[in-house]
Write a structure and sequence with these properties.
The complex is a heterodimer of chains A (about 220) and B (about 400). With about 220 residues, chain A is α/β, with parallel strands linked by helices. Chain A contains 6 helices and 7 strands. Chain B is an alpha+beta fold. Classes of the chains: A alpha/beta (about 220), B alpha+beta (about 400).
Chain lengths: ~220, ~400
């Protein structure tokens, strides 16, 4: 299919609805980005996920805002796909550390890196949203800023930078929002320990009450 | 509307020029004023640093984070049913409404749906928490503009709603009542008749506030034409709820998306206002409170019978997947992006709270306004600190 001009593509989008609309979104991105659209997933009657190449992040945002009509900025954040080396924080601190799965497995629309940036934009007239993801490199995680597209991305990128250590090229002010300026580490990365759980065993592992209707345990107790 | 925006821009440029000129010619500096972190106009501890040139704001920067509790990290070490106890504390004035989108996201991943009666009761409690939340805003609004009476009326009538929430759930502020697959308990006897009475009282309260405040000349002159946010800017910043509808955008998640809640079973109206100023934002909230009482009345009339809990395994494991669910909370769009790896607890939860986006527009909207308007604009944007910092 030949790339459509912006106007024609916009009009074509306006005529669609439901899952055809979600397919239209993916098609519009494919026409505009070509190879840079890496993967997509449509869940029928639910939602659409797309993953774009890191260098096409801003261009994809332009397509979503201008061609697809998603001019409402919902949120932007990051995700660390590495399984937590601390598990669910329920280990007995006196016992040796149990073996854990360390394989990194990305979610919908795939991925190649440990960390990803994802954002959601919404079309307020056609009532649908798109979740867009992009990989960021492992050694120096960084991506272009969305501020020129959506002014509201400012605080979300600051928060993401603080929590995941992902850089945003072109962001004017990446100061911390929540933590002290000299805080070391990025709290939402999976390898950042939740100290409250490590210094004291989680009481949930010892205080297990028998559940109502649990005949076997009640039988033993009586 | 454009005139006002241009005026804001021009006054900003003029203020900057004046600032520069003063610095060069007289070597005086503008004043930096610190509002908060304990100012009564901030529902919680938000600090705003404003730079003034005379009486005019040339630069403003909110400084959040005094109440950051790291819920996104904490959810990763909780099981799915435990998370509702955490998210109750995000927007503490409308707690039940925080639970609903998370539970719906978990239900979506598990591909189960609550039975009709549970959906109905969820919707009723959702609207009750909206009424409790926004009625406090309506009273508080008066205090921030110098009128003391409305806040007493608001606390008086909000008490009735809190009593209802307590009667049904056992908790006044943090019900923790929603369960994956349904609800903890059914409604107590006599609750429906009681609720109908209270809804009447709340409609009277709305009328009282409307007569006392909204028709008042001082109130209008303090709010009309102040802090105008055009629709385009509002959408870019992701404003939601009444703040977005006050800018003329007809968007309400209760109507515009299909969720297993009972909003499509009743007849109600989404209010919008074309002006985008502080007055419009307050006016929309007043209308919505009244509309909510009507929604509750209609839902009570046709509440179906049946179970309140779907068949759910005793130990809840949520299948692998990702789900995004957002609802129209009292403050605006509140959503959870839940990533599950098939475990007892979520792998990652992104909490999209309304106030975070609503407050990120403050540096833009405060430029060029005068000092007394700072408070009225912040009041009209309506934020809860727990909802900004999470």
């Amino acid at each position: 299919m030949a790339p459509l001009s912006d106007d024609a593509a916009t009009q074509e989008m306006a005529a669609l609805s439901g899952d055809a609309l979600r397919e239209g979104v993916v098609q519009a991105l494919r026409d505009a980005l070509g190879d840079a659209l890496l993967d997509s997933l449509i869940k029928p009657n639910d939602d659409v996920w797309v993953r774009v190449r890191t260098d096409a992040w801003v261009q994809a945002g332009h397509v979503l805002r201008d061609t697809v009509g998603c001019d409402y900025f919902c949120f932007l954040s990051g995700i660390d796909w590495m399984p937590s080396p601390f598990g669910r924080g329920e280990d007995d601190p006196t016992a040796p550390t149990p073996e854990r799965d360390t394989a990194i497995k990305q979610g919908y629309a795939g991925g190649d890196t440990r960390m990803q940036v994802f954002a959601r934009v919404t079309n307020l007239t056609k009532h649908f949203g798109v979740t867009i993801k992009a990989d960021v490199s492992d050694d120096a995680p960084a991506i272009d800023s969305w501020i020129p597209l959506y002014a509201g991305a400012n605080w979300h990128e600051r928060e993401c930078h603080e929590m995941f250590g992902i850089g945003f090229n072109g962001h004017p002010d990446l100061r911390n929002m929540y933590l002290p300026t000299d805080f070391e580490g990025h709290p939402l990365r999976k390898d950042f320990p939740l100290l409250a759980r490590l210094v004291k065993p989680w009481p949930g592992i010892v205080d297990v009450e028998p559940l109502p209707g649990d005949d076997s345990e009640e039988g033993e107790a009586s | 509307m454009t005139d006002l925006v241009d005026r804001q821009k021009l006054s900003y440029i003029a203020a900057q020029a004046a600032d520069a000129r003063l610095n060069v010619e007289l070597e005086t500096e503008g004043m930096t004023l610190n509002i908060g972190p304990q100012h009564p106009a901030t529902h919680g501890t938000l600090r705003i640093i404003v730079r003034l040139d005379g009486e005019q704001v040339v630069w403003a920067e909110p400084s959040a984070g005094y109440m950051h509790r790291g819920y996104e990290k904490l959810t990763e070490v909780r099981t799915f049913p435990q998370v509702t106890a955490l998210v109750n504390r995000i927007d503490w004035l409308g707690s039940f409404a925080n639970e609903v989108p998370f539970i719906l996201a978990a239900e979506k991943l598990m591909e189960i749906e609550a039975p009709p009666r549970a959906q109905w009761i969820r919707t009723i409690l959702f609207e009750l928490s909206r009424i409790a939340n926004v009625s406090l805003f309506l009273g508080d609004l008066g205090v921030q503009l110098g009128a003391v009476t409305p806040v007493f009326m608001a606390f008086r009538d909000r008490e009735h709603v809190l009593n209802l929430i307590e009667g049904a759930t056992g908790g006044r502020f943090h019900p923790n009542f929603d369960r994956i697959g349904g609800l903890k308990d059914d409604l107590p006897a006599g609750w429906i008749a009681e609720t109908k009475q209270v809804m009447k009282k709340l409609r009277n309260f709305c009328t009282e506030i409307e007569n006392l405040l909204f028709g008042n000349e001082i109130f209008q002159s303090r709010l009309r034409g102040i802090g105008v946010i055009p629709a385009e800017v509002a959408k870019q910043y992701g404003l939601s709820g009444a703040n977005l509808r006050a800018s003329g955008v007809d968007w309400d998640l209760r109507r515009d998306q299909s969720l297993p809640l009972a909003y499509d079973k009743v007849d109600w109206k989404v209010w919008t206002h074309p002006d985008g100023d502080s007055f419009a934002r307050c006016w929309i909230r007043l209308q919505e409170t009244r509309e909510s009482t009507l929604i509750v009345d209609q839902l009570l009339d046709q509440i179906p019978s049946g179970p309140i809990m779907a068949k759910v395994p005793r130990i809840i494991k949520v299948p692998e997947g990702e789900a995004w669910v957002s609802t129209e909370n009292p403050l605006g769009e509140m959503g959870y992006y839940v990533v599950s790896k098939g475990d007892l607890g979520p792998f990652r939860v992104k909490i999209r709270s309304a106030s975070f986006n609503n407050i990120s527009i403050v540096p833009w909207v405060l430029r060029g306004v005068y000092v007394p308007d700072v408070i009225s604009i912040l009041a009209s944007l309506y934020f809860i600190l727990g909802d900004i910092d999470r």
